[in-house]
Amino acid sequence: MKIGQRLDIVNISKYYGDFKVLDSINLVCEPGEFVTILGSSGSGKTTLLKVIAGFESNSDGSIHINNESIAKRKAYERNIGMLFQNYALFPHMTVEENVAYPLKLRKVPKKEIKERVENILNVVKLNNMGKRYPKQLSGGQQQRVALARAIVYNPPLLLLDEPLGALDMNLRHNMQFEIKRITKELGITTISVTHDQEEAFAMSDKICIMSDGKVQQFASPEEIYERPSNRFVAEFMGTTNIIGIKDITYIKKDNNHTLIKGITEISEAPMELLAETKYIKTDIKEALFTLRPESIRLASEKSYNNEFTVKLEESVYLGERVKIKATALNKLLNINLNVNEFRNLENTDKVKLVFAPEDIAVIYDK
Ligand code: ADP
């Protein structure tokens, strides 16, 4: 049985005194979707989670689970599953007793409790650990017990607040995989909060990037990485170059693509960018575009457009890749080349580079 339900967050705002901590948030999570709210510290992520859970009230807007407003429901009546970083298990109860606890509270018959606990311990792969006490388990196992306890009563929604924050790197990666597997297996709609980009990419169907209490972009991980909607998102998602382009002309290339020609900050010669037409504003003559360090290559004899010359400033070896800083005209660029490409450059400081017109994303804010 798939238990996940649809969540609609409609125009949610919240003030602490005069301070607007959430600013007209709109999000839709489809049944069974895994959505991550990603943002730096202080962006309002935890407050949003608390508003959904019912621990904090919103000043404006509404929240609906399966198209039904939950405004009048208190936190415990919302029946939402929660897993936080400090998932306190009851130390004096066995694994089974811990997991059975929410079912007992809900007065589920004993026989059914037994079945459901067994079932969920199977899902989290702890079926032979039911009689142990929390202190007899590893950190990762304890966390799986906490997860089992959060989902054993089939909540319509699971909220995770930095649940992996306290775990070491290896365990973190394992648990990312496990949590994703378990939530997908049960089809549970999940909202997770993190400041860790890699975790967001590893786990999510959709990512909501927040800053200053606002949603900056809500889309699939691929879309956010490849088509950031503004400068903030582009800079937040890993190292990139943000380059100005002016005197733009737009030429329709085919049904879906537009060729953009203009003068960029990195070359005196005009350059060509290729973008999906739906992202283009043909009345605007100046824009920015993002160019990822790994999309920049050494120019070969064959390349002709989008060549530009850089002066190498510094380089750092990272095993197979070399991370380079270089200037084109006066613009400092981040470039990644593979080691073999880089070896050919020894004893030169001026290098011709190139990028493919389609390896960019156009953004229109400054
Ligand atoms: P995040 O989870 O993204 O780190 P929070 O939602 O915890 O951000 O906080 C967002 C902003 O709201 C921060 O500037 C924080 O200082 C402020 N804030 C959080 N809780 C309260 C509160 N109870 N009273 C006043 N300000 C608060």
Plain-language structure description:
There is one protein chain. By secondary structure, this protein is α+β, with helices and mostly antiparallel strands. It is built from ten helices and 20 strands. The chain has helices spanning about 45-55, 75-80, 95-105, 110-125, 140-150, 170-185, 195-205, 220-225, 230-235, 340-345, and strands at about 5-15, 20-30, 35-40, 60-65, 70, 80-85, 155-160, 190-195, 205-210, 215-220, 240-250, 255-265, 270-275, 285-290, 295-300, 305-320, 320-330, 330-340, 350-355, 360-365. Helix 3 (about 95-105) packs across helix 4 (about 110-125) and helix 5 runs parallel beside helix 6 (about 170-185). The two termini are about 50 Å apart. Adenosine-5'-diphosphate binds near residues 21, 42, 44 and 47. Adenosine-5'-diphosphate binds near residues 21, 42, 43 and 47.
The tally of strands reads 20
Which small molecules are bound?
Answer: adenosine-5'-diphosphate
Q: Largest sheet, described in full?
A: 6 strands, mixed
Percentage of residues in strands: 35-45%
Structural class: alpha+beta
Q: What is the arithmetic mean of pLDDT?
A: 91
What is the molecular shape? elongated
Counted by DSSP, the helix tally is: 10
Query: In percent, how helical is the residue content?
Result: 25-40%
Query: Element order, helices and strands?
Result: EEEHEEHEHHHEHEHEEHHEEEEEEEEHEE
Query: Which radius of gyration do the C-alpha atoms yield?
Result: 25 Å
Instruction: Give the neighbour order of strands across the main sheet.
Output: 6-7-8-3-9-10
Distance between the termini: 48 Å
